[in-house]
Each structure stands twice: as structure tokens, then as C-alpha cells.
Amino acid sequence: MHSSETDSEQQLLTLVRQGDSAAARAVYSTYVRYLAAVCSRYIVNSEDVKDVLQDSFLKIFSGIASFRYRGSGSLKGWVTKVTVNETLRFLQKNSRLEFVAISDNDFDCVDEEPDIDIIPSSVLFSLIRELPDGYRTIFNLYVIENKSHKEIAGLLGIKESTSASQLHRAKSILAAKIRQYNSKNNVKL
Fold first, then answer.
1. Cβ atoms < 10 Å from Cβ of 166
2. Are 143 and 124 in the same domain?
3. Long-range contacts of 177-182 (CB under 8 A, 24+ apart)
4. Does residue 86 sit within a domain?
5. What pLDDT does 119 receive?
6. Which of 3, 33, 50, 152 lies most in the core, judged by the most C-beta atoms within 10 Å?
7. Average pLDDT score over residue span 17-22
8. Exposed, middle or buried, 129 (CB in 10 Å: 0-12/13-18/19+)?
9. Claim to verify: residue 62 and residue 126 sit in the same structural domain
């Protein structure tokens, strides 16, 4: 962001904190689509996404007074963190996170990374959304949110080894889905 954009972002925050409803609408309209996409990485049902998004914005606006602006991108980072946390809370509250025990035999398979550069991002997004909730959640937290297995374990109340094994399984399932897509669509590697 340029300094004028940073200044306008800070000015917008100041107005929101002063109770300016137009500024609050501007924050909402700036981030609603992005945060809906964040929720959709974890939650498949569109009504559930809307509910979590609403809860996220309630949390954002009730906590914005204590948010400390740290420069360009910090507001987006903060609203993303709030939304991811609300999404995880929703998944846990609704018992959507089931973790499957994985035997040692599952780790014997070769970790062959499929070529994802030749698949449209919308297809890849759809394939990720097809993963079971627990796998999808850990995959997103690790791959997209750059969380460590220790951080994921803390967020979800599981063991680090469970996070690692679920990520391994999620990657295996996703790789199989990608290979299936490539062969079905005659994608040449």
C-alpha cells in the first residue's frame, strides 16, 4: 500500500472507532468477499459460511477498539485471524472436526507431489473443499495459514502427531483427486 492508502486505512479505523456507520460499512464492504472466501476454505455449507461471517464481523467490530494498527496489511491480517478463529470455533461447536486414526502403513506410501500448476485454481479449491472437515481444516491451517503442527494442536485441542498425520492423509487424498482430475481431463504432465 502507498502511504496515502495507509493514511486512509488509519483514518477509516479512527472513524469506525468513533462510531461512524459509513466507515463501518466501508470496512465491511472492503473485506466481506475476502473473508467469505476464507470461511469457504473450511466450511462447505453456504448458510454456515454466512453465519460464521456474521459472527466474525460482530467480533471484528466489537474488538476493533483494541486492535493496534501496525501498518499496511495489519488490518487485513487481524480480520483474517478473527475469521479463522470464529470458523474453527464453529467447526468445534458443531462437532465437524473428526480425526481418523492412521496406521503406520499409511505412512509407507510415497509422497509424490502432483503437478498443481496445470490445474485451474478454482478446480484445486473445489478439490480441497471435498476433503473431510478435519483433513480440510488441518490442510488449510498448515498450508494456507502457515501454522505449525504445534499451533494447530493448540488451536484444535489435539496432539501435534494427530495434526501431522491428518495433514499427511489430507495431502494423499488431495494428490489422488488431482491425479484423477488430470487423467479424466487428459492433462499431460
1. 28
2. yes
3. 177/127, 177/130, 178/114, 178/116, 178/119, 178/124, 178/127, 179/114, 181/119, 181/123, 181/127, 182/114, 182/115, 182/118, 182/119
4. yes
5. 83
6. 152
7. 95
8. middle
9. no
- Per-residue pLDDT band at 10 (split at 50, 70, 90): confident
How far does the chain reach from its first CA to its final CA, in angstroms?
38
User: pLDDT tens for residues 51-77?
Assistant: 999 999 999 999 999 999 998 889 999
Q: Which three cell numbers stand for residue 116?
A: 498443481
- How many structural domains are present in the chain? 2
Give the C-alpha separation, 177 to 182, whole Å. Answer: 9
For residue 62, the one-letter residue type is S
Please choose, from the candidates 60, 66, 47, 114, the residue with its C-alpha nearest in 3D space to the C-alpha of residue 86. 60
Q: What does the block give as the cell for 189?
A: 504432465
Computed over every residue of the chain, the mean pLDDT equals 86
Which of 161, 156, 167 minimizes the C-alpha distance to 95? 156
